[in-house]
Amino acid sequence: MWICQKISTFKIAIALSVMMIWKLMLPYWGEASEYMEMAGAVESERVEKHVVILLVPGLSFNEVNWLYECGKYREIWHSGAVSAMNVKPDGPYSYLNNIVSLSVGKRSSGIEGWNSFAPDENIDGVPVDNLFFQWHGISPASSIVHPHVHILQDKLSRSSYQATAGWLGESLKHLGVHRFVLGNADLRSENIRYGSLFIMDGDGSVEGNLHGPVVDNAGYPGGKKMDADTIYQQVNDIHNAFPQTFTVVEWGDLFRLYSERYHMTKDHFARMYETILFDLEDTVHRLHGTKAEVWLLSPVVNAEAHKEKNQLAPLWIWKENRATTGVLYSDTTRRYTVISNTDITATWLAMFAGTQALNKGIGRALHLQHADQGAVPFPEIQAAVAEMNDVFVHRGAVLSSYVSALVAMLILVSLLIWLLVETSRWKSIACTLLLSGILSPWWFLVTSPWGTYFSPYLYVAVILAGSCITAYFLGRAVKEPFSFACFLFFITLLLDVAGGSNLTQRSFLSYDPIIGARYYGIGNEFAGIVLVSGILMVAPVFRRIHGDGRGNYVLQWLLMTLVMLVLVLLLGMSVLGANAGASLSAGIVYAFITSRLLFNNIPFWVKAISGSAVFVVLLTVLYLLQMAQPESHIFAAFQQLFSGEWTAIWQTMVRKISMNWKIFKISYWTQLFITSYFFIGIVLWKRRRSRLMETENFLINGCIAGSLALLLLNDSGIVAAATSMFMTLCVCYGWSLRKASGT
């Protein structure tokens, strides 16, 4: 009996020890175990799967449009799935920076001197395999050598996005997928071999043939030409040798053509342009003869397209069944017409390991929507890309002229108020100008589908004229025109965002997919406007229930509770606004209003403790709002918080602060920010709000609190603070003038 008890105790002790060791070592084993699970799943269900990436640096939608219209193989360009891709890196726009970002699934940048080499090549006269041994202490393990891989890894690990080079190749290796790179984009005086970045592992190892598909041809730029027959033969050999393969073909002819563009005559360039595009089409056609899924991917557009602001790169995918036709949908951008560069590696990994695999990028796998499910044909993709390009090209001119007009209006109205305040005619003109300023964002929103049909300055003139005419009639037809104008914008934005953001996505005052800071939800320009509009639109009702009794304060609080609840949901929900800073700002305004209405006489220290508790509650509410699909960037930030990734969180905060400082130095909105805050400061100092009713003063204070919160909590806080304070100042001036004139 005693022996049995000892054995049982011994077993329990062993079990507890194993559990403790497992708990302690789990963080270190986690990554390896996930790789083992992926590999095990593949071994149990191994099927033949081949992917070929035709990487064409220099390819833009100009070339894709030409191929669609003039190509010899019509069936190629009328099948597959196509989308535009934002390839913006974390740094200057370049082939290297762009492809590093694509390869790691996060915005990143490369390092000086990066390249791929064959073992028999030299760097500064030293054989590259010897150099690799001198720097790494081991000999290269593959036919493609990356002697600078450790420097790239170190730089990426210290970057603001904390990327990892080679993680996709590492994952594919553990999944049993054989990886190869073919070709190069070498110039006369510089070697360009970046395709291997996609599929090298963490040690920089990958197999391939950099020179085999590239043949000498004196008639081509750089004296080199990609040979379609060789590419086809080598890809076919790879497919016949292994059941699962991932091959990158770096097709450098177009890149070489544009590198020598300014040394060529126009006529000869035009001839070679067509010749090389036909060569590209021939290569695609030959690859269609393999059993692989084929991707035509551009990591960087050519210099001419970039100069034209045509910066979205084309992506075209043909499944193994070449007749498959459709469009690509991105969960990251929530669009069919444009995807993010962070989605590419996630999609490739999902092809072999499923969507639950270890993804070290921040993107999500793309979805192919087939034509019979309502896919968008290529001409509609062309039109959408053209519209996005037009908005990007003219955005600067539109915003600069519009913001300058608003600043001039504020200065003019301020002078009218201070110098000619007793003249009724000037009061009426000032009121109309102020009301037109409040209505102008609404005009930008509702006219967004037609904004690109006008020249930039004509469009701004139409907006201003429409705003003035609307303000003139609204000021005479409605008893509370300023609150009504705020309500008009609020309800229009609410309905548009709830209905898919068709207007918001296309407006000059909204986010720009080519800039890529945001693809969905409510941008900071509109966020500042809608926050204060929601507060100011209830002024007539707020006045009606004003009184000294406790019951009146409770009714006012209930009214504001309803409004702020709608604002928090609108701004914070993943499927609606997805704007964390604006949602938290709305919560802070609500806390301010609650404090002033119900707890105005409690001690300051109690308010401070309560405020901290309220902020925690706001974060909790914001997290709960992200539970609805699809996932957003806010949810990703919460995941970092819960995972204890404090370095990443700190770097995100630093990045957002630096972004605000950069915007302050270069943005057009800085003019409006400084002007609005300057004049609201004068208003507070001179106490001109004394003409307002107590309820109006209260609401203006709430708007000022919201504007300050937006300034501190948003990554583009300058923008949101500028638009919100502009609206607040206009309404404050307008109410003062109407009260002074007895209306």
Automatic annotation (TrEMBL):
The chain crosses the membrane at residues 12-30, 399-421, 428-445, 457-475, 482-499, 519-542, 554-576, 582-599, 604-625, 666-685, 697-713, 719-737. The keyword Transmembrane applies. The keyword Glycoprotein does not apply. It comes from the Bacteria. Keywords: Membrane, Transmembrane, Transmembrane helix. This is Uncharacterized protein.
